[in-house]
Amino acid sequence: MNASAPMSANNDYPIGEFRSVFHGSEPFLADHVIQGQKILPGMAYLEIARAAVAASAPPGDDAMLVLSDSVFVNALTVTGKRTVTVRVYPGSAGQFGVEVSTEQGVHFQTRVSVQKTSECLVAKGYAPVLDIARLRAEITRPGPSKAAFYQTFRKRGVELGPSHRGVEEILLDGKGEGLATIRLPGSSARGMMMDAGALDSIIQSGLGLVDNPEANVVPFAVINTLVVGALTDTMIVHIRQRPDGMHYVAADEHGKVRVIIEGFQTREIDLHAKQDRLSFYRPVWKQVPPPPADDLAVQVVEARDDYAATTKAVLAAAQSLASAKHTRSALELHLTEPDRATRGLWAALKTVSIEHSQIDVRLRSGDAYLALSYEDADADIAGEFAWRDGTTALISGGLGALGLLVAQDIAERTTGSTLILLGRRTPDEAETARIEALRASGANVVHRCCDIAQIDEIEKIVAEYPGIDVVVHAAGLIDDALVIHKTAEAIDRVFAPKVQGIENLDRATAGCPLELFIAFSSVAGALGNAGQFDYAAANGYMDTYIEARSARVRAQQARGRSIGINWPLWEEGAMRIDDASRETLARAYAIKPLPSAEGLKALRLAIASPHANLLPLYGQKSAQAALFAPPKAVAVDARPQPPSVELDKLQREILQEMRLQTAQHLKMKPNQISETEDWTNFGFDSILISSFVSHLNNVYDLNLMPTAMFEASNLLRFSQFLADNHAAEMSRKFARNGAVAAAPAASVPTQLPTRPATDTVSAGAAVSQFARRFREAYRNRSSYREEDVAVVGMSCRIAGANTPDEFWRMLDEARDMISEIPPDRWDWRDYAGVSRWGSFIPGIKEFDPLFFGISPAEAMYMSPEQRLMMQSVWECIEDAGYGGDSLKGTNTGIYVGCGPSSYTTMMSHLPIEAYSVTGTLSSVGPNRISYHMDWHGPSNPIDTACSSSLVAVHRAIEAIRAGHCEVAIVGGVNALLSPDVYISFTKSGMLCEDGRCKTFSDKANGYVRGEGVGMLMLKSLRSAQRDGDDIYAVIKGAAENHGGRTTSLTAPNPNAQAAVIKRAIEDAGIDFQRVGYIECHGTGTELGDPVEISGLKTVARELLDADAAAEKQVAAPCYLGSIKSNIGHLEYGAGVAGMIKLILQIRHKKIAKSLHCDAISPLIDLKRTPYKVAQQAVDWEVAAGQTRIGGVSSFGFGGVNAHVIIEEYVDPRSGQESDDADQEQLLVFSARNAEILHATLQAYPEFLARTDRSTATLRRIAQTLQTGRTGMQERVAFVARSIDEFDELLRGFLEEKDDFYHRKVYRGSSKAGTGDKLDIGDTQAGQEFMRRLVETGELGKIAELWVTGAKLDWRILRS
């Protein structure tokens, strides 16, 4: 049992995977035989799980493994070689899930935790040593002898070999306790901590305490298994019988506790219940009680001599009754006593009832009412029929898959046979190849084009081959349509090959020496099937024809054994159904398509049986009985149906959910689905119904058949049907309080799921629902992935803040930055009725064109948006430590949300110059930056209105992940330059009169505009970690979509908003439970905010159950807020402003107050959701070991939606100071002139006052200053060992300026190119010289070189 395979890991979820191959000769299999089969002992799973976890994560000293909630799902039988796979799913710290499976499915699941041995035993009340002497004194009554004890096992078919017969003695106290001695010499040397035989013997000893020791039981569950130490050859076991199962404490001979088992539970076993196999059922006509006398409208159809005419009469009657959808009625077919053929219409009648549940169907023969039922025929199935050599077989439908399969079976099992294949067309290339293969098998194969509905064509062929001794009628035609759409012409088409075909084949071969006459019928001829009224009637006729022919054979009026087979679906062949119906049958009745080999075997078994008609099925027989059970009656009330408001709460919920599901399935709108209109009026046919029911089964874990929708023929009835028959499943979906009572711990389910729900992890390995819980717990830890993107640089300029630090202070102080429009923009008084409010950047005209190498003449024509963009990008890359030429020549990309500028209007009085167009086009902004910086990556302006900058983020993430660029600058810019847009938005009703965004408030009345710019520098997280970048936060996922067609172009679509959030969460690979904040679009409009909340509620409803959502709102709410309440709507820059706000909240571990929302809008109901509006600032608290996660939404008024998921970054190196933590650091500053240099330095004392004082922070500041800034003309350098020392030197320099002297402060200039001659970083000698300076700690010399203009390779200093 030594499982071995390496721990498999992928970037999404590392799964420990181990495999063992069992052959049945292992002692734990050879000595453990139940009902004649070798079965892996249940207790062996406990050791397998323990060993797998110990191999994946070995426990340390004073640590033990505890297996909890162990469930034995299915017995693992070994008949030959069996590969067993064990998967270990890591969960939260110290927690693992273990799942054992084979190709048979999942067999065992358990949860394993690592615990301190001493603490765990004390907490559970166990002593480390078992008081054996005391127990022997208290438990004295002898139990069964060893021989008698194991005789009990043999009586129930359990044969245990020597390695599993370890119970030597059992003592009882008569009060539910026992003491057993287990002795298995050599068991401790088998290489297992818990030998399977020893552990099984421990469990066996508990049978001495039960009332019925002969019950056929196997392990079902164990609540806890505490693995304290290895089992020994001799064990003393204290047994206690408790309500939750047996409890065992196993100790060695000295009393040292080795293993403790709590709550061992059993269940009865049927080894064959879950195995796929052939089963046979035979038809039996039975008399049924006459229908009750009632006032139903009964339409009677009298059978005629012509079967087709009778069928058409039944159809006409059914169509007439079906038109009265809400009226109960009955369709009664009367037969004359000798007329047995018309019984074939039973399945057609069933089809009417399936499609129209308000119609009762009856079959009356004389004074008796008849019904066709099916009984188990397996007892009559013995050997297989053997085809005779020299067989001459006539096969109709010979080119069909089933016809060719039968021909192949005869060809392969006989010699000298002749196969006459009839078909209506010439064989195609593939069919010709199969015919040639038959000939290669030695058969004489003949193909004849023939319409078997024409007897003369058959007679010609029979005259040519008079020695035909086998007829196989496998021809058929399907023309599916619901009863209300079925036509007489369709009946004729379907009847031709089936009804006329079987009669013609029988008459034409009457003179042949027939041994077999075989008709391939369908399960539809037995049970009916929606959409197949005529096909059911045709196959029903064949069944009765075979029955009548058998009687003629017995009377020697015909030759050849007659056999009719009602085939179910095959894996290949014409008798197949659509995938949805296939899935539904497998789910509801465990019926699977017949594999070709099994189907041919079924044919041979049926021929050898004594029955004329048989229905074979393949799958799990235990579930098939329900297929033949009469359908549940669905009450049809002729009275007017109550409106949905009068229905109980559950049905109302179901009704609305089904309306939505139906609309989505039909690509319609929910309000187009009437609750009382028949399904068929919406275009539902049998195929659509099958696919819809399959979809519902998957979503709600139901076992519906398509007939349910025919029985409940409209939305209202179907909702009632679900409420009446599937309340538990639907309640679980809706998570209604009290709807599902928790089962007591001791209860044991009578049935276990045979196929746990599975999904897929990134490596492609399927994981069960059980495994998902561990995967989610694992993901709840701080874990970063290959596709994650790091934010390494940040800059912004908005009203009230020129830097992210100032931005945070504004948020933290809950400042409202809205003001009247400044007079240097326009005089708002000139525009009556137009909003006079906004948030504005002071000094928007300020721009130093020469800094960027732009002439003043060109700069005059550059829009403020382009200027702000250039300045902010420069600040962003400097903030990231990549200033100057660091990124020159790279494939850095830039994506900026921007749009048309009003600057065009403002410049209309100037003459048109070459710069006029480039200065105002939004597309040129990012392009100008790429040009200036010499970047070769994507350079894209993004204009999706209000969502522009967040869409820019999404596009950049995609580009980084795809490798189109290694670094991307993203952001958005918005400037308020003229009244034009104000006038338009005021007329559209978007803007509020009082100039405040009152997001989510009961006073919400529109938004206020704002201007600003924000930029972020993005890199892949792996690259950022590799390069030692400071990481502000991690972007986990992003998504964008469009709302499609809504009520108007600018109307929001809550479903699309929900979809984009869910897609971003999926992209992020996180549990929505962890999201603690969402920066909402939140413009403060009366209807827009409730629509956004509606979308968020949909997200919560689909990703959390209702109870979990309500609990989250109390324990760890997801707060909602909007930056627009502080600075208004930045439009093109809104998304990036929201992102910067979220990142700042994450870094400061605090959620800022969302302003102007004293009372929440009555249109917003957050009860039983995870959400709370951030009406006050709160600390952002998370569980230990977890990170903060938030989302940002932006919704463009043209319908483009975007959402981004951001996670806190925790540096794995944090808290680890390097050995050289006390090293001095070199901090360098430069500017174009002395005044700017001093102005730059003026900002640092305040910055240092707010930063932490660690040496790691000082080191990061030094590195950023060295590599993130362009070396300019005027320079100063500081050498400091701590933040405090740097602060002191800085303040001294600022006070005395160039007159300040200190040995650690170096001032200089690179004028006249003096320093350019010192290219220390460009030559090998220069680099070696600098290395020596670094090694000898001469930072002062390096500083002196730099301030005089030397070019240095800062990487040498950082290394």
Automatic annotation (TrEMBL):
Its domain of life reads Bacteria
> Primary place of residence?
cytoplasm
Where the record annotates domain PKS/mFAS DH, the positions are: 1-275
Q: Name one GO cellular component term.
A: cytoplasm
Ranges for region C-terminal hotdog fold: 140-275
* Ketosynthase family 3 (KS3) domain ranges (all copies): 786-1208
Keyword annotations: Cytoplasm, Phosphopantetheine, Phosphoprotein, Repeat, Transferase
Catalytic residues (positions)? H32 (proton acceptor), D200 (proton donor)
Annotated stretches, region: N-terminal hotdog fold = 1-119
**PROSITE patterns named among the record's database cross-references:** KS3_1, KS3_2, PKS_MFAS_DH
Q: Name one GO molecular function term.
A: fatty acid synthase activity
Q: What is this protein called?
A: SDR family NAD(P)-dependent oxidoreductase
